[in-house]
Amino acid sequence: MQPVKNTIPTTEAIVNLYTRCATELPGDVCEKLRKSLEKEENDTAKYILNTILENIDLAKKESKPICQDTGTPIFYISSDNTISLDEIKKHIETATKQATEKIPLRPNAADPIVGTNTGNRPIIHIEQSDRFKIDLLMKGGGSENISAIYTLPDAKLNANKDIEGIKRCVLDAVFRAQGKGCPPYIIGVAIGGNIEQVAHLSKKQLLRNLNDRNKDEHLNKMETELLETINKLKIGPMGLGGKTTALSVKIAKSHRHPASYFIGISFSCWALRRQSL
Questions:
Q1: Rounded to two decimals, what is the model's pTM?
Q2: Residues facing 148 on adjacent strands
Q3: Residue 235 forms beta bridges with which residues?
Q4: Is pLDDT above 90 for 81?
Q5: Closest to 270 in 3D by CA, of 19, 96, 105, 36
Q6: Contact 214/174 with Cβ under 8 angstroms?
Q7: Which secondary structure element, helix H or strand E, spans residue 190, and what is its range?
Q8: What does the alpha-carbon distance between residue 244 and residue 183 come to, in Å, rounded to a whole number?
């Protein structure tokens, strides 16, 4: 029997993916926000969370972007070798232009030297897999700006190459961020590897369902403990107080060089816009 070949999604299908991603927040994120509102005691925090939920409902009802910053589109493609990756890229680039006009999306590709808008430049990551899948993450600038990479040991934080040192880095990043990235945050963390790996791997954790359980028991425990400690900082929604500073912490690890120990921390604002095809 001949293996079934994967089918490249049409440009229209990718435009529809963009529409869902920009206008509809995933169910697991909405659920966490609703539960946070039920548990919140701070009046200002409750008002903000309620406003966020109203905004989510309105965006979906009217098929309008959840936020005026529609972010940088980041595609994570899993594919075998039966389809043309160049063709996938062409479909994505064409769909990006069409979605920018149709939804609409804010063009967010500026030349770093002269400042002119260069058009629509999606970031595309491709990895080998038996099953074809496209994940789209639309990442806003505010939460991207507070993301960070730490190197252990860190004398200023009194952080060593251990679990306690990792936690100190994450807590320092959250404390420095305060409300700059529109909390409550979803936080992706990557341990080990090299600089490019922790940047990529920490951001990829934002694709995980907020209700999943880390298969690594050490990391699962660290996720739970960090989330609890972060919410005790009382930074709260939009940095205005309350016990809902983060909705979830997701951690991954990668083998490192013996001389290096990097911690990558990627933040998402409450509007974690991710969808799959």
A1: 0.94
A2: 265
A3: none
A4: no
A5: 36
A6: no
A7: strand 185-192
A8: 8
Q: CA–CA distance from 72 to each of 51, 107, 109, 125, 141 (Å)?
A: 24, 9, 8, 13, 8
- In this structure, the strands spanning 133-139 and 72-79 are antiparallel
Cα-based angle 36, 38, 43 (whole degrees, multiple of 5): 90
Residue 113 zone, left/alpha/beta (φ > 0; ψ -120 to 50; rest):
alpha
Three-point CA angle 100, 73, 77, nearest 5°:
120
Q: CB of 244 within 8 A of CB of 40? A: yes
> Exposure of 250 by Cβ count < 10 A (0-12 exposed, 13-18 middle, 19+ buried)?
buried
Q: 17-62 pLDDT, tens per residue?
A: 999 999 999 999 999 999 999 999 999 999 999 999 999 999 999 9
Kindly provide the b/e burial profile for residues 262-274, where b requires at least 16 CB atoms within 10 angstroms of the residue's own CB. bbbbbbbbbbbbb
Q: Is the pLDDT confidence value at 1 over 60?
A: no
User: What is the per-residue DSSP string for 42-88?
Assistant: -HHHHHHHHHHHHHHHHHHHHT--SSS---EEEEEEEE-TTS-HHHH
Q: Would you say 171 and 98 are in contact if contact means Cβ atoms under 8 Å apart?
A: no
Q: Which run of H or of E encompasses 219?
A: helix 217-231
Angstrom distance (rounded) from CA 236 to CA 193: 32
Q: CA-CA distance, 236 to 243, in Å (whole number)?
A: 5
SS (H, E, C) 10-55: CHHHHHHHHHHHHHCCCHHHHHHHHHHHHHCCCHHHHHHHHHHHHH
Q: Which two tokens stand for residue 233?
A: 């900082």
For residue 11, what are its two tokens? 């440009």
Return the structure tokens found at 27: 């169910």
What angle in degrees, to the nearest 10, is found between the helix axes of 217-231 and 163-177? 40
Q: At a CB cut-off of 8 Å and minimum separation 6, what does 274 contact?
A: 21, 26, 135, 136, 137, 138, 206, 207
